[in-house]
Amino acid sequence: MIELIGTNAGKVWNALHEGGKMSLKALKKATKIKAEKDMYAAIGWLAKEGKLSFAEEEGEMMVSLTE
Q1: Which domains are present in the chain?
Q2: The whole model's pTM is what?
Q3: CB-CB contact of 46 with 58 (8 Å)
Q4: Chain segment 10-57, per-residue pLDDT in tens
Q5: What is the DSSP code string of 1-67?
């Protein structure tokens, strides 16, 4: 399971690196991670490492890489 989370964290990081800030819905589509729980675990991993920033825009959660 840890390996899957790490792999998905890499997909999330790459998608944000290439596409910039995006909504959780757009991030899920960009990474092609099927299960929401798997995407949220990957986001949690990166957030714990201080690699993500979060903002709410027009009622939607946006995620970007920390500068």
Answers
A1: 2-65 (1.10.10.10)
A2: 0.93
A3: no
A4: 999 999 999 999 999 999 999 999 999 999 999 999 999 999 999 999
A5: -HHHHHHHHHHHHHHHHHH-SEEHHHHHHHHT---HHHHHHHHHHHHHTT-EEEEEETTEEEEEE--
